[in-house]
Amino acid sequence: MAEVAEIAINVKNLNVWYGSFQALKDINLEVEKNQVTALIGPSGCGKSTLLRCFNRMNELIPGARVGGQVMFAGTNLYDASVDPTEIRSRIGMVFQKPNPFPKSIYQNVAFGLKVNGYQGNVDEAVERSLRRAALWEEVKDRLGTSAFKLSGGQQQRLCIARALAVEPEIVLMDEPASALDPIATLAIEDLIRELAPEVTIIIVTHNMQQAARVSDYTAFLMVSEERSGYLVEYGPTSQIFTNPKEERTEAYITGRFS
Fold first, then answer.
1. Interacting residues of 69 by C-beta distance below 8 A, sequence separation 6+
2. Which residues contact 44 (CB under 8 A, 6 or more apart)?
3. Are 123 and 147 in contact (CB under 8 A)?
4. Beta bridge partners of 220
5. Alpha helices, DSSP H, located in the chain
């Protein structure tokens, strides 16, 4: 008997507006736990908007509002009783461009722990997070130096270590390698695959090869005539890339339109 997949996030009839403009329309999606899910599609289809719905980052944008449900750990993230700050510690985020704090390498990783009142050994937690981000061996002798002295790829892995330090259940990544060179990009992709068994990862990417390499599941979004993003197809990455059910998916993946 096949195992029933555990769902990390269940999106139900999700709609997002920025003022009067509807950015996402009727999105339904189940994200499996401890898998890598890629969000792909042309520019303006709402990939990053959808990603930001998962930790309520959209409400930081003036005029944004969300309808529908995003179920996480048995609770709708948009219930009035939910504390967005707590959600953002359980659902971490890594942005397109590395954004280390103007602090030391050590202080960057320890920051979230201290904000959350971590009671354990901070030194051990910092080392553990840097090891999980495959950065420890490169920085262990210079933890007190500025994070800005790291290379771009190292800074991005530091941001991943910072996100991992508070032991999130989910990590959101918004084109985490788009600002990096090919070698640093490969290091980030390897890291994503290494982390997948222990944390759910949702990644936005414009790079079809990257989606095919790193993800277990792929969601393909398109833009309607009204410029609203909608979900065309969602399934195992191998199926989406080799045997898509929708002609629009095949046309996008094969480059017949972008």
1. 10, 11, 12, 13, 14, 76, 78
2. 223, 227, 229
3. no
4. 40, 233
5. 47-53, 84-90, 105-115, 122-132, 136-139, 152-165, 182-195, 208-214, 237-242, 247-253
As to burial, measured by CB atoms within 10 angstroms (0-12 exposed, 13-18 middle, 19+ buried), residue 76 is middle
Question: pTM, whole model, 2 decimals?
Answer: 0.94
Please provide the average confidence, as pLDDT, over all residues in the chain. Answer: 93
Handedness of CA 255, 206, 154, 192 (dihedral sign): negative
Look at residue 160 in the predicted model and tell me its pLDDT.
96
Cα gap 92→94, rounded to integer Å? 7
Structure tokens at 256: 């017949």
3-state secondary structure of 117: coil
Which phi and psi (to 5°) does residue 198 adopt?
-115, -10
pLDDT digits (tens, 9 = 90+) for 94-134: 999 999 999 999 999 999 898 888 889 999 999 999 999 99
Q: Which of 241, 233, 234, 178 is nearest to 213 (CA)?
A: 241
CA distance 157 to 29: 28
Domain 7-99+170-253 CATH superfamily? P-loop containing nucleotide triphosphate hydrolases (3.40.50.300)
